[in-house]
Design brief:
By secondary structure, this protein is an all-alpha fold. Helix content is about 65%, strand content about 0%. The chain has a single domain, classed as AhpD-like (Up-down Bundle).
Length: about 180
């Protein structure tokens, strides 16, 4: 697998601002952000779309983590699986059996969350091409057409970080170490 060294970088004013705000908001700058900081457009796009997804996707925090974990699982992103497992467990209050089911590639015990993960999985694996039956099944589980588009937003956010992590290989932060994962 390719790996960028990202040495001797000079950050833009915008990148420094994002990293400073991250430090203030989280108490640390995740290693993933430090790697993304090698390109202002990437870091800015990721942090903006991440915040927008959290605020405006129409999903509650548990559902948001289901989307993020499902995408990270399919994209085999060890960093994001650890980070979002931790966030899901500690901050978003995702039931452990839901997080663990996604981490293990198993059926989620909650019917509605299973439908969300299933559509997310299909949209991710098939690059957005899904059948009307898949959409109808998702809608029948209690979601709206707007939620279909919200899933796409979540996939976009996680794809940015997953791909970046694949080429920059950030070390899993100590904060997320309890949920280290590999397929």
């Amino acid at each position: 697998m390719a790996h960028l060294k990202l040495e001797n970088l000079v950050y833009s004013e915008k990148t420094n601002e994002i990293l400073e705000n991250t430090q203030k908001g989280m108490g640390f700058v995740p290693n993933m952000y430090q790697k993304m900081a090698g390109n202002t457009a990437l870091l800015d796009a990721y942090t903006y779309s991440y915040k927008s997804f959290r605020a405006s996707s129409g999903f509650n925090p548990v559902e948001q983590e289901v989307v993020f974990l499902t995408v990270a699982y399919l994209n085999n992103c060890e960093y994001c699986m650890a980070a979002h497992s931790f966030v899901g467990d500690m901050m978003s209050k995702v039931p452990l059996e839901v997080t663990n089911a996604i981490r293990e590639g198993k059926q989620i015990p909650d019917t509605k969350l299973a439908a969300l993960s299933k559509l997310t999985r299909s949209l991710t694996a098939n690059r957005g091409i899904v059948s009307q039956d898949e959409i109808d099944e998702f809608l029948a589980a209690g979601y709206s057409e707007s939620h279909v588009l919200g899933v796409i937003a979540g996939i976009g956010v996680k794809t940015l970080s997953n791909y970046s992590n694949h080429v920059t290989s950030p070390e899993v932060d100590v904060a997320f170490a309890s949920r280290i994962w590999s397929k």
